[in-house]
Amino acid sequence: MATPGWAGRTMLLLMSCELVCLTVSAPPTVTLRNGVKMPLLAAGCWQYNSSTAFDSVSAAFSVGINMVDTALDYGNQDGVGRALASFPRDQIFVETKVPGCGLDKSTLNLLDCYKDTQKNLESDLSLLNVSYVDLVIVHFPPVTSFVTRSCNNWSGGCEMVRAQWKAMEEFYKQGKARAIGVSNYCPSCYDCLKSADIFPMVNQIQFHLGMGTDPAGFVSYHKKMGVQLQAYSVLGNNPIKHSASEEILRGNLTTSIGKSHNKSSVQVALKWVVDQGIPAVTKSANAKHLKEDLDLWSWELTAAEKEALDNHRNPAGSPSFACSSETASEFVV
């Protein structure tokens, strides 16, 4: 039997979904500073090739997940774009990313930071085959932050942040993105944007069970700044294997709480994140697992369970591997 093409695989996914999917409401949303409503759950596709991204994202949309998280440097946006083509565009929240300054080429010339960002933003639209995205974020701080652990003036980091953000602001003002933000930014990076016309609306960071409710003060800091956090690596991240945390997947705490609600440890870990009002990026190529990821709002953790999860500590993980939580100057946005 011949292997079906992408359109055929979409139909197979939709047909097979009838076996595992019930009528599920779309995830709740958070409201960004500019009024845009962002779903609390997104289908991620890091480490997927274009074909796997197409299958996974199509399955996610079919079960009711209405947001996708991708990036230019994932190399799979054409597959995501094919999946998007089979669903109403205005019902899907599309998030993508552009590389931080200097991370996609060797030069650190400020004009290149600006021009490369312009080019990469247009590439996002072209590869996804859309006229606009709902959210685009800068994937990392400038490359110098990986050495200095900071966006600071003496390393040239601030100048690079501002050059890149200028292109982001222009893209937003042209109506090509409904919201703009950053990822892996720390307070010193925001300090570089004190005079920006538009302040970042979202910061996507590593956040998962075991880090506490306010790791390195990031959660409270961003609430004060009016920047919505979004969580990646929501099941932990082994820095060597780039895999989920065994403690989260099979630890006594998550498995025992899951058993009491007839839920999985994954659902427990995801629920802990979204219950704090922090959107989560999850990932699976299995429609049944994706539907389980979506089932986070039909049940509640008890006060005792929430306290145990809040106080649980897993030493692996920090909000940003690109910079530290060093204190920035106080300013209000």
UniProtKB/TrEMBL annotation:
It comes from Polarella glacialis. It holds the Pfam family Aldo_ket_red. Keywords: NADP, Oxidoreductase, Signal. Gene3D superfamilies: NADP-dependent oxidoreductase domain (3.20.20.100). Residues 321-333 have a biased composition (Polar residues). PROSITE patterns: ALDOKETO_REDUCTASE_2. The keyword NADP applies. Residues 1-25 form the signal peptide. Residues 46-312 form the NADP-dependent oxidoreductase domain. GO terms for molecular function: oxidoreductase activity, acting on the CH-OH group of donors, NAD or NADP as acceptor. SUPFAM superfamilies: NAD(P)-linked oxidoreductase. Belongs to the aldo/keto reductase family. InterPro entries: AKR, Aldo/ket_reductase_CS, NAD(P)_OxRdtase_dom_sf, NADP_OxRdtase_dom. This is NADP-dependent oxidoreductase domain-containing protein. Residues 311-333 are annotated as: Disordered. The active site is at residue 74. The record marks 97 as: Lowers pKa of active site Tyr. It comes from the Eukaryota. Substrate binds at residue 139. The keyword ATP-binding does not apply.
